[in-house]
What does this fold into?
Amino acid sequence: MSPLSLTHRDTVAGPVLLVAGELDFVHAAELRRQVEGLVLHAGQCLVLDLSGVEFCDSTGITALLAARQHALAAEAEIVLAAVPAHLERILTIVGLVQVFTLRATAEDT
Amino acid sequence: MGCARRVPADLNASPGPTTGPGLRSAPGAGDAGAPVGETWRHAPYPVLVADRRGVLTGLNEAARQYLPRAARGDRLRDLAPSWLAEAHHRLAEARSPGGGDVPAGHLGDRFFEAHPTPAGDGRVVWWLIDRTDALQAETALHSARTRSEMLSGIASTLLSTLNVPRCMEVTASLAAQHLAEGAVLIAPPQGRRHQLTYAARGTGAVQVTQQVDTRSVPGLAEALQGFPPVPARWLNPDDIPDWLIPEGFTGPVGSVIVTPLPGHGVPAGALVLLRSGTEKAFTEGEEAFARLFAARAGAALSAARLYAEQSAITATLMRELLPPKLGSVHGVEYAGNYRAATDQERIGGDFYDVHPGSDPSRETLVVLGDVAGKGLDAAVLTGKIRNTLQALLPLADDHQRVLSLLNGALLSSHQTRFATLVLASVRRGDEGVHLRLTSGGHLPPLIIRADGTVEEAPTHGTLVGALPQVRARTIETVLAPGEICLLYTDGITEARGGPLGEELFGEERLRRALAGCAGMPAEAVVEHVQMLAFQWLRSGGHDDMAVVAIGAARSGGPPTVAGAKDGMNL
Amino acid sequence: MSDPTTAAGLREALWHAVAEGDEYTAVALVQDAAARHVDGETLLLDVIARVQERIGTEWAAGRLTVAQEHAATAINERVVAILAHHPSSARRGAPRGRVTVGCVDGEWHAFPARLVAEVLRLRGWHVDYLGAQTPTPHLVAHLHHTNTDAVLLSGSIPTHLPAAHAAITACRSVGVPVLAGGRAFGIDGRHARTLGVDGWAPDARGAAAALAEGLTRPDPSRGRQAVDDLPHLADQEYTMIVRSRAQLVKQTLADLEDAFPAAREYSEAQRERTAEDLAHIVDFLATALYMDDAGIFTDFLTWTASILEARDVPARSLTIGLDLLAGRLRDFPRTLRLIGEGTTALRDRAAPGAHA
It folds into this structure.
């Protein structure tokens, strides 16, 4: 099992957070804390690059929903980028594919 | 005077204080051939000299204090205690000090060890070493050790059970075993009745609940209110009423102790100890020990009471949160199983319910869901969801509407958790069981067809409790006889383990297993799925797991007998 | 043709019903018999229990599929439940005492425990039946709730013996005696005795007799621990094997692929099944280490060999697995000795084809 690793960089469009490892009961809170600490401006776009996510359970989904809440509160957008197939299946099951904007890569604009 | 005691020989063998310094420096000691000298006369402890026939030939001042009427020429047999006379006789016969124990016994009110020094002329000098204080210390030490061992044994026995009646039985039995011949534990009144626990030595404890007059026993009513115990000597055994005598107690009562069992704040009851007339009365030490025992017992009883109260409250609160028992409803079989994430808890974030239709022509609503998170907090939210759904039953014709209303209710309740769930409306028709299935962000139900094909019901929708709007798609299908629709939570598919340790059980493995379940009754399918998931886990930790199977009975409807569906009498 | 008025006839008729998955007929048979005043205990033990045994042997011989076996067992369980609610089973008068019946944690075979529970009810006991795989904390909480006279602990699979030991120790430390039963404890109950139970019974009638005779309550002030009963655990071999189980299976699987190139061509499903087989061997090996009893390991191996051969799978793979495991466990003398005994037992067993 690999623990969660979070890498943050800023682009012109807004912050990009590279998420890798496991979004489970133990680690999802860490993502939530990081995201809620990000300063977002109206019109910016928060990109969560999920290409390295190996596992995601309901607490991981909660963290993604919290990230969305944080972006909307700042009148910013949120994009989930490079979503792996297993995670896309989960997002489909819980009905969040329609709620989030999904994108093939973090760089795409 | 006849109270002889023998101490082990090794006391004699060890040099030093036990044998007394005087022995080594005494003339003739260790020199059996030498005649008896005179130094012994000044020895600071009693010394007697006797010849082979047991006739006293000398004694010093110290010895005279204990044997004031002794004179030379007297026979030891007449003037000395028998233990010493016999020891002398044995020594004279054997003509050697011999091995074995050092002779010891009382002389007056003191306790002596007698160490012989044979002289060459057949006489023996007996050096008497006073061991009274050592003996008292040993006895005191022994009884203190016995008591503290007894107390620690009693404490761990008492604390082993958190069951109140059992704890009372243990208390009464221990008291009858260690403190008295009979013991009665009187619990605080419940209404006007008391639970009474009787024990007599050598018999098991007996419990009865009855109305008794506690004021008829001096000190009892006070003890039940926590007042200090009445000293035993103030209690008249004749005042003990018959109801206080345990069966098997061989009376008449000789002495009595009434002592409170101090609890946490309130008395845990009172203990009455009884001894028969033939047994010796309670000493002050024993009374103190009884109080110590009562303190331990009172603490244990209070802990048990507290536990019983707490668990009664928990059980009441939990009753609403536990999954229901399922069976057959309107010709359709339902089976469910649930296991909470931790073994310590019985409830968690998964839930299911079956709401039977008012008659066979009406749909039965089945719900299975999963609240994000685990433990008690998650369980409380499942309770809220289950209650809301119960209220929404009249609208169950429209699953999407039910989900929207539930979503609204959860959003307005200011909690941050979301839930996913599946709704299934079930009705038995002529050609099979009709199903309407809707997923609110939950894993789609799996359908096991008669030929072993496993289908995923193509329903999907949004989780509830997180977003302002929810959407969902309802699908319809029919189960032929012998087919099963399985609802489950991700605790099953996310079980981590397997032979290689870290793999997820996964949907694919579940489908493969279900393919082999075609034709099984609903109960067997549920059990099989739970078993596979658990064997996959072995001893690893897991999330909550819930499984519900809806089955079309194979022919004519399963035979049922009232109550047969809940075979367990828990 | 079977005569459904005798136990043997009923047995035959019930067997056909459950084997065909015909619940309706199975239930009707037993209900009719109960209505004709056939003794409840006879129905439970001389009809239903015997049919259940036959389900097991037929499965072992490869004549029932897993699904058929499950279906048959489920029907048999339903039959027991319906019989339990038959008016003839109602207790008359005050109970003789209160007992708790449950299965060891991890044990899914609840049928024997259920039968014992029903027989004890018929004999006048107040029975709390806790069902399959009772977690030990639940069992102990139950004992604190109820003033139970005894716990009857059922286990079928020997690999649950360490869990059984934990349950036995926990029950005894709260002063409740334990009566063990079921195949896991050995046909003569020797494993039960090793684990310090207060009693053992070979079957439901034996359990009822042992209870009637009365069990002595254990003295809870003697806080015993696992290693007091099993001093050999001090060598840590059991602990090491259990903790490295997954690693051990993984390595042995790799060794297998090195030694037998054909194994590299296995499909994912075949590979997983091989891993499961190895994991099973390790589990029984660990249990034998725990109990310090080679019989647990050799019985499992010879039984598995016969199951494999009944399905036309050569049992040679077991010996290969043992050799590879031994190669990985050089530092564990007690373990190596057990593996050696396992290899010998497989070699010495009756030639294939000797069984039906």
Q: What stands out?
A: The first helix of chain C runs from residue 7 to 19. Strands of chain C lie at 98-103, 126-129, 150-154, 178-181, 199-200. The domain at 7-88 of chain C is CATH 1.10.1240.10 (Methyltransferase, Methionine Synthase (B12-binding Domains); Chain A, domain 1).
